TrEMBL record:
One of its GO terms (molecular function) is uridine phosphorylase activity. It catalyses: uridine + phosphate = alpha-D-ribose 1-phosphate + uracil. One of its GO terms (cellular component) is cytosol. The lineage of its organism: Bacteria, Bacillati, Chloroflexota, Chloroflexia, Candidatus Chloroheliales. This is Uridine phosphorylase. It comes from Candidatus Chlorohelix allophototropha. CDD domains: NP-I_spr0068. Residues 51-229 form the Nucleoside phosphorylase domain. It holds the Pfam family PNP_UDP_1. Its EC number is 2.4.2.3. It is an enzyme of class 2 (transferase). It comes from the Bacteria.
Length: 258
């Protein structure tokens, strides 16, 4: 059976567009009338959002079903967006609604599981391609193994990490909707292909960005490991928290410059 099930879907117009929703929300005075001329950092860990709000002076805005804060240290040209949960479907919805309000550059930062011994807890991995093993991307792009982040924005993000002397690795990620249906056979297969990480958002967000003509870069802090084909969780490790904040700082610096 092909996926999506309806043949030729990618040539058809959507019944409801993000612009329709934004128009509706503005008619109800739920969001501002003005478009957003900002770069957006998408985050998934509540602990990171909490840390940013403790350390940064911010201006909250109601622009989506998420927590959205302009960063005054970036002259309100960069915003932190979080508090909407995890996974491709909700992240794609938030991204779509922000694009419809004028956002053109995104950096997504979160945690990921490691598939390789050399990617240890707290290590940072910058994504250069994402395996499309989730459902969202297939409704935006024709079938294909990978979705790709923006080359230019990814390069700028890496340069910000290098300038801050933050070590990182770069490689492929495996994006899947169902963490409780990852199998040892799949992990072994992707290890053989040299894939670094497994997570839940990257390929979908890359597909949305490509479809909508905006830029997205994404990177992860390693929070758990499947490298020896056993699960080793370290979600509360200080190394993970430190790396997430370094990713935030590099993302902020990048979006201020581009």
């Amino acid at each position: 059976m092909p996926y999506p099930n309806y043949d030729g879907k990618h040539d058809l117009e959507a019944f409801i567009t993000p612009q329709d929703f934004v128009k509706y929300a503005r008619s109800r005075k739920s969001i501002p009338e003005e478009d957003l001329n900002v770069g957006v950092i998408l985050c998934y860990q509540r602990s990171l959002l909490k840390q940013v709000l403790e350390n940064e002076e911010t201006e909250p805005l109601k622009v989506t079903g998420a927590r959205f804060h302009l960063l005054k240290s970036a002259e309100n040209r960069v915003a932190m967006c979080g508090g909407f949960g995890i996974g491709a479907p909700i992240a794609a919805i938030i991204m779509e609604e922000l694009i419809a309000q004028g956002v053109k550059k995104f950096i997504s930062i979160g945690t990921a599981g490691s598939l390789r011994q050399e990617a240890e807890i707290g290590d940072i991995v910058v994504c250069n391609r994402a395996i499309r093993d989730e459902g969202v991307s297939h409704h935006y792009l024709e079938s294909g193994k990978y979705a790709l982040p923006s080359a230019a924005l990814t390069l700028a993000f890496k340069q910000s990490l290098e300038k801050a002397k933050v070590p990182f690795k770069e490689g492929a990620t495996w994006t899947i909707d169902t963490p409780y249906r990852e199998t040892i056979a799949e992990a072994r297969h992707y290890q053989s292909e040299g894939v670094y990480t497994v997570e839940m958002e990257a390929s979908a967000l890359c597909a949305v960005a490509q479809c909508r003509g905006v830029e997205l870069a994404t990177a992860f802090a390693i929070s758990d490991s499947l490298a020896d084909l056993k699960w080793h969780p370290h979600f509360d490790s200080p190394l993970v928290e430190e790396s997430l904040y370094r990713l935030f700082e590099a993302a902020k610096a990048t979006l201020q410059q581009v």
